[in-house]
Amino acid sequence: MAAAAPKPAGAQVFDAIIVGAGFSGLYQLHKLRDELGLNVRVLEKGDGIGGTWFWNRYPGARCDSESYYYCYSFSPEIQQEWSWTERYPEHPEIRRYLDFVADRLDLNRDIQLSTTVTGARFDGARSLWTVDTAGGERFETRFLITAVGCLSAANIPKFDGLESFRGSWYHTGAWPREGVDFTGKRVGQIGTGSTGIQAAPVIAAEAAHLTVFQRTANYSIPARNRPMTPEETRAIKASYPEIWEKARAGTNGHPFDVAARSALSVSDEEREAIYEQAWARGGLRFRASFQDILADKAANDTASDFLRRKIAEVVEDPEVAERLTPRDHGFATKRPPIDTAYFETFNRDNVLLVDLKAEPIVAVTERGIRTTARDYELDIIVFATGFDALTGPLLALNIEGENGLPLRQAWAEGPRTYLGLQVPGFPNLFTITGPGSPSVLCNMPIAIEQHVDWITAAIRHLREHGLDRIEARPEAADAWVEHVNEAANATLLPMAASSWYLGANVPGKPRVFMPYAGGFARYIGICNEVTGDGYRGFALR
């Protein structure tokens, strides 16, 4: 086990401090400690490792990338020693995998659990970061690396009266370790994004009654989850070099090809057959049926219309089916969920769908939720309302850069980074999968590895050349933000006005498209060019 937080003492000095012990933090610790020989400490607010997967224990929580590539690629030994049990692993299995990796690499001895970072300040005179924690500890470090995840700051809507609710309420991103017993309970679930789509079928099967409060109808593809066979596992393990090569050469870090054809280049009958085959296979590969689903609205309409027809086929009540049918955005312009019997759930007698566009929530009452139309009596409320994505986890650290500049002030009009890796005015601060990187548009583990490898190489370069600091230049960040916008606008992604990619789920958050939509392979090429050109766009000294 990793170490629990020690008692407050004088400032502890490290070469690098990493905040977060999920996929990012574990790999970054391994690279800096075991390859560069640095003195490193990981600070983790949870009492166990796992990052996002430590907190996301809600019913039905699974990965939406397939297990054989939702893992690390850097260690052939780990790849061969670990075997996944399912096509889409559930949260306990992902945590077991990360525990296995941490044990295999002896990482726990440098991870400090139950430690919440409350602030970090850069001392320009000494080129050092000072990091403070809720327990009163203070750390000094040359390099500060955030590994806090893109989806780790829970977004809980500020409903009037929530404090008066006599039942229990939970957010899916901070689920109790002991779980929640829904037996015999009247449950209200708010939210039908990826999380809500996973949770609703499981809750409905256990609860006496489930009321789903939907703001935005969503598309979803069946996961078709099943156990991995021994033959599949052997074939995958024998093919890992080719799997990772294909993943790095692709748009989203997935090891499958996007078909080199337009949805408009085939007959209606052929297109329907292709979609039917992709629907039967299930999973995110549905998006790869045609190359222009996210580039051309007419092409996107063919996929969207197909999925709308599927909802109408599955949901027995035509009125309920229509309420579940997205009309305000195209398929995959918001994060495309995958599910296990989500739409089928609304055929159950104990499930009710409430359209919040027709009857918005007015308040939470002592006995449940009140909309403009009626009161819904509930015993439990589940907030499946997502996260303050990408920027929220970073702003929560209360980071101050050169001359006391708060990160919150620097990003008042939206995040501004160079490559998603560094922020002007914040020397030696690295943001793994930060805003402006492929991050959530990508298979996360492989995106994480690319960022960690780049950060490690940059720190090695500084040390080999006797340098103390690396900082993104303001003009480089300006140009990168412009490029990020251009890449997004070359797709249909910004058209989904309610998307959390734009921060639309958080009141008051600047509406800025945050991830890099130019493709993972293209992003890797840009990062390599920057490095090869003497870290172009960065000031080193």
Q: CATH homologous superfamily of the largest domain, by name?
A: FAD/NAD(P)-binding domain
N- to C-terminal separation?
39 Å
Largest sheet, if any?
Answer: 8 strands, mixed
Q: Mean of the pLDDT scores?
A: 94
Secondary-structure arrangement, i.e. CATH architecture of the largest domain: 3-Layer(bba) Sandwich
Number of domains: 2
Number of strands: 20
Rg (C-alpha, Å): 23 Å
* CATH hierarchy class name of the largest domain: Alpha Beta
Strand content: 15-25%
Structural class by secondary-structure content: alpha/beta
* Quaternary structure: single chain
Q: Would you mind describing this structure in some detail?
A:
The protein has 541 residues and is of the alpha/beta class. The chain has helices spanning 23-35, 52-55, 76-81, 91-104, 194-206, 230-238, 240-248, 268-281, 297-314, 318-323, 342-345, 392-395, 407-410, 444-464, 474-489, 520-532; strands at 12-19, 40-43, 111-112, 117-123, 128-133, 138-146, 168-171, 186-190, 209-214, 221-222, 338-339, 351-355, 361-365, 368-371, 375-377, 380-383, 399-400, 429-431, 470-472, 538-540. The chain has two domains: 12-153 and 389-540, FAD/NAD(P)-binding domain (3-Layer(bba) Sandwich); 162-228 and 251-383, no CATH class. It is built from 16 helices and 20 strands. Strands 1, 2, 3, 4, 5, 6, 17 and 18 form an eight-stranded mixed β-sheet that branches. The chain has a five-stranded parallel β-sheet with strand order 7-16-8-9-12, covered by helices on one side. α14 packs parallel to α16 (520-532). The longest helix has 21 residues, at 444-464.
